[in-house]
Design brief:
By secondary structure, this protein is α+β, with helices and mostly antiparallel strands. The protein has a 7-stranded mixed β-sheet with strand order 3-4-5-6-7-8-9, sandwiched between helices. A 5-stranded mixed β-sheet has the order 11-10-12-14-13, sandwiched between helices. Strands 1-2 form a two-stranded antiparallel sheet. It has 2 domains: about 140 residues, Fructose-1,6-Bisphosphatase, subunit A, domain 1 (Fructose-1,6-Bisphosphatase, Chain A, domain 1, 2-Layer Sandwich); about 120 residues, D-Maltodextrin-Binding Protein, domain 2, CATH 3.40.190. The N and C termini lie far apart (about 40 Å). It has 8 helices and 14 strands. Bound molecules: D-MYO-inositol-1-phosphate (IPD). The site of D-MYO-inositol-1-phosphate has 15 residues, from β4.
């Protein structure tokens, strides 16, 4: 198995530096623009932090490629190839960032041959750095992480997201999914407003499962490997193999819980990340869903 530790350590150091920029801006007034919906926001800091991260990594590794949330919003294609590629969300939880709701993260995944080799999620406000490298375990601020191992859906805290979609089909599907889970029943349903940090709660054992429809590859690529390396399972909402471009995910502390959630929740149609052109033009809506 290849050792990507040097690259991982570099990624951690740039994530920490970028975290300082996010934290400084967190307290300040922001200028907000809309992307695909009235709840899909971007600020100057999202764009600036992505540029800082890409410039630093490119300076160190000039041959590497990038998939960045804000570069894609500006018109770049999502193209995952076999080349070393960094998948970046400069601020996961932009709505939280705008409102100073204290859960925002920098999410960085590194892929080779289309496989994620390591993931970094830096939750800046509470200074929690999650990371995992394939085959080498998952860690929070250097301490090993382990999922809860819960197998009984009735004993689970399940995390999900409301998402940015506001059309009737997406909203009714999202709310009815929560309704059916609560009726099973589960112990509780939670949403922190950042997919990356939500998923890290499963890796840390504070929640037992996570599911989401409509997020993007940059929201979950890093946290998916963190959950897997913490002993959890990550699948598509239809029960098939996880595909980071499909915009559907279930992550759980056990295969039993993951497949039970797959039986209960319904998807709504979303275009794959690698099929779509997301262009954000100064507050105009982009096209990112069917
Ligand atoms: C969003 C967050 C949010 C989720 C959305 C994502 P962003 O990412 O992860 O929790 O519900 O689907 O797009 O836009 O803040 O990077």
């Amino acid at each position: 198995m290849a050792d990507w530790t040097e690259y991982l350590n570099f990624g951690i150091s740039v994530a920490k530096q970028a975290g300082e920029v996010v934290l400084t801006a967190f307290q300040q007034q922001k200028e907000v623009k809309l992307k695909s919906s009235p709840a899909d926001l971007v600020t100057e800091t999202d764009q600036r932090v992505e540029k800082i991260l890409i410039a630093a990594i490119r300076n160190q590794y000039p041959q590497h490629r990038f998939i960045g949330e804000e570069s894609v919003a500006a018109g770049e294609r999502v193209e995952l190839t076999d080349h070393p590629t960094w998948i970046i969300d400069p601020i996961d939880g932009t709505v939280n960032f705008v409102h100073r709701f204290p859960f925002v993260a920098i999410s960085i995944a590194f892929t080779v041959n289309k496989q994620v080799e390591f993931g970094i999620v830096y939750s800046c406000v509470d200074d929690k750095l999650f990371h995992a490298q394939r085959g080498r375990g998952a860690f929070l601020n250097g301490e090993p992480l382990r999922v809860s191992g819960q197998e009984d859906i009735n004993q689970c805290v399940v995390v999900t997201e409301i998402g940015a979609e506001r059309d009737d089909l997406a909203l009714s599907t999202m709310t009815s999914n929560i309704f059916r889970l609560l009726k099973l029943p589960v112990h509780g349903v939670r949403a922190l407003g950042t997919a990356a940090v939500d998923m890290c709660q499963v890796a840390a054992g504070g929640a037992d499962a996570y599911y989401h429809i409509g997020m993007h590859c940059w929201d979950i690529a890093a946290s998916a490997i963190i959950i897997q390396e913490a002993g959890g399972v990550v699948i598509d909402t239809d029960g098939s193999e996880f595909d980071m471009m499909s915009r559907r995910v279930i992550a759980a502390s056990s295969a039993a819980v993951a497949s039970r959630i797959a039986q209960v929740i319904w998807p709504f149609p979303c275009r794959r990340d690698d099929e779509v052109h997301h262009k954000c033009v100064h507050g105009e809506t982009g096209v990112d869903r069917l």
